[in-house]
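// run 5 | inverse folding | seed 20
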């Protein structure tokens, strides 16, 4: 049934299947972005349905780009892998991911193996199941190396020794996972009567998690991008309204793509959306500039359509946008037209919006409420890029002289 669907319908079904499989927003977006080249090639050739010759042309193209050196090996392999995964979905209707045991090379005995699989089955998300399996197999393999064939005789001393061993071998972020899943493992073992203690105090110490602070898009670049958009065309009216939703309200790409006409309360001046990522409802003010951009697109640019979505495709049958990838592509095109780095993501507008609020002195808890973040830690990252306020925290060195006088 999938072969008979249009490309837009296939992308929508594929994103849903990825979500049903358990992949989060970022993972789904990465999969869809890697297939975008194949989809764009069909659109450039005027095809609404997958065509074997276009698929073969796409395959030859990425091969040539790899062998000519314009695409590195990792990107090439990722493009091939993601395309094969999508085409397999079209043929079978199933999302086939790599072996969940991948990356777990430690062989453990049947006793430990049975315990490991029973525990791992209690971890709901496929990504975190991989992390749990990695930690548990590493730990049980280490116990075997110490002469233990089962959990009998193991306890606090063995846990301490393993943590010391692991801390010398693994990164800070890996140690956070080690501590986390050993804590979950022993809580489960204690509940099942397989351990004399859950060892909560031993395993509850905090481990800092290293997170890369992503740069934000400067206000001058955002202004340049908005000014470059040709708002006289249908595509320009649509792009401008989308960019304003990201810039002024900090909406995610998935929520912009899914925005419905009924979500806009023109009378009360509000936008009410159910966020795709957090499944939480957030109510945002319909500011004058955002309202004007939406009004201009809806009244003067949006094609006639039965779709309830605000933003529609530019070609017939004028269906609603199928995925957040389209929003990312529109943002990329706007950046390219303004001479800005095309490597930036639409999410950088959300980061810039939140950073501006933090710089203006808005509480991080209030920022989290506006963004609709389900976890305050997701919002705290914006504090790190508040350079102006960080400068105020720096202590002066006035009056501090080095030991040994002025010659030091």
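// decoded
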């Amino acid at each position: 049934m999938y072969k008979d669907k249009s490309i837009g319908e296939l992308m929508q079904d594929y994103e849903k299947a990825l979500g049903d499989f358990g992949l989060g927003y970022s993972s789904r977006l990465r999969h869809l972005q890697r297939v975008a080249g194949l989809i764009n090639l069909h659109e450039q050739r005027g095809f609404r349905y997958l065509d074997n010759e276009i698929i073969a042309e796409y395959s030859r193209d990425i091969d040539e780009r790899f062998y000519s050196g314009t695409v590195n090996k990792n990107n090439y392999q990722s493009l091939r892998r993601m395309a094969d995964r999508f085409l397999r979905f079209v043929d079978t209707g199933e999302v086939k991911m790599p072996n969940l045991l991948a990356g777990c090379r430690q062989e453990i005995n049947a006793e430990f193996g049975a315990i490991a699989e029973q525990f791992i089955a209690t971890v709901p998300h496929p990504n975190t199941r991989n992390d749990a399996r990695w930690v548990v197999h590493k730990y049980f393999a280490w116990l075997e190396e110490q002469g233990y064939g089962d959990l009998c005789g193991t306890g606090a001393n063995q846990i301490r020794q393993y943590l010391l061993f692991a801390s010398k071998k693994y990164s800070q972020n890996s140690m956070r996972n080690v501590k986390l899943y050993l804590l979950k493992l022993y809580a489960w073992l204690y509940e099942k009567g397989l351990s004399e203690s859950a060892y909560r105090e031993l395993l509850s110490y905090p481990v800092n998690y290293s997170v890369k602070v992503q740069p934000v898009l400067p206000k001058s670049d955002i202004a340049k991008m908005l000014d470059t958009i040709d708002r006289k065309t249908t595509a320009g009216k649509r792009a401008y309204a989308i960019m304003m939703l990201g810039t002024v309200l900090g909406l995610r790409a998935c929520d912009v793509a899914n925005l419905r006409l009924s979500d806009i309360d023109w009378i009360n001046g509000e936008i009410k959306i159910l966020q795709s990522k957090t499944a939480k409802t957030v109510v945002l003010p319909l500011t004058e500039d955002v309202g004007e951009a939406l009004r201009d697109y809806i009244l003067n640019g949006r094609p006639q359509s039965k779709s309830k979505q605000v933003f529609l495709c530019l070609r017939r049958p004028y269906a609603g946008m199928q995925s957040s990838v389209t929003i990312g592509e529109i943002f990329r095109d706007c950046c390219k037209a303004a001479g800005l780095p095309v490597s930036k993501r639409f999410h950088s507008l959300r980061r810039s919006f939140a950073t501006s609020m933090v710089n203006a002195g808005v509480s991080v808890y209030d920022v989290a409420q506006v963004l609709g973040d389900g976890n305050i830690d997701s919002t705290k990252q914006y504090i790190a890029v508040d350079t102006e306020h960080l400068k105020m925290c720096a202590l002066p060195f006035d009056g501090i002289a080095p030991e040994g006088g002025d010659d030091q």
